[in-house]
Amino acid sequence: MVHAFSRPRSAPGTAAVALDADHAHTRRRSDRARDTRIRTALVTGASSGIGAAVARRLADEGDWRLVLTGRDPVRLREVADDASATAFAADLTLPGADRQLTDFALATVGHVDLLVAGAGVGWAGEFLDMPPHTVDDVLDINVLATLRLVRLVLPGMVAAGSGRVVLIGSLAGSVAVRDEAVYSAAKAAIGAFADALRYELRGTGVGVTHVVPGVVDTPFFERRGAPYRRSRPRPVPPERVADAVRDAVARGRDEVYVPAWLRLPCRVRGAAPGLYRRLAARFG
């Protein structure tokens, strides 16, 4: 499916591009809009990796209308074509981009039943060697951009009395990983945010799911500046995380680990932090 690029009205300093579907795609969206069973989802970080896998998995189910966003318009268009989705390329760290995306999604699908916040970046190396601007980038993309977007999408869900926010975390945020201090801190913030927000939303009909993947076979490691060299845990395909997201949404689960055994080190750290630290210092 071919998409045409058009630039929407943008606030100063923002970079956003809407990818509008062709006439046939638009007609199918109109047909779906008449089916009240169709749900709507907004997926961030959908250019590649986990976000792209989630978009494709939801599309496979056939009852989702999707709006996808990511920073790479070329790759995003490819994913949108595969998922028969509408795409909006944007850098959500730029002023006003989150509002543009939200307005675009609401204008396209009318409301958002599901938000999957999958955008994220990492950086590997000792903290003292980390450039200050990279510290800002990791926190802006993983934490601030996510919180701002949730803040914009959530009121509609609460007003409707239904919906779900899925936050893609990381094992690094649950147990902390050497040479990933800022990334670990950012993902720990996402986990705490998920718990606190879930308490606030109790009784509203809106759920919050925290997905905690381990090592996932995506371009993430290439972009963080260092490849993954450990023998354990082994990387899992992003489709496995996408399956976990789909199942968590269907079952209304609060927290999911991928793979499931990763819950064990988190429990050890919580129950016996001294023992965990000794083991982590020895085995990394």
From TrEMBL:
PROSITE patterns, alphabetically? ADH_SHORT
Q: Which UniProt keywords apply?
A: Oxidoreductase
Identify the InterPro entries for this entry. Answer: KR_dom, NAD(P)-bd_dom_sf, Sc_DH/Rdtase_CS, SDR_fam
Do you know which Pfam families this protein is assigned to? Answer: adh_short (PF00106)
UniProt name for this protein: SDR family NAD(P)-dependent oxidoreductase
Q: Which family does it belong to?
A: Belongs to the short-chain dehydrogenases/reductases (SDR) family.
Taxonomic path: Bacteria, Bacillati, Actinomycetota, Actinomycetes, Kitasatosporales
Family annotation (PANTHER family): DEHYDROGENASE/REDUCTASE SDR FAMILY MEMBER 7B, DEHYDROGENASE_REDUCTASE SDR FAMILY MEMBER 7B
> Residue limits of the Ketoreductase domain?
39-219
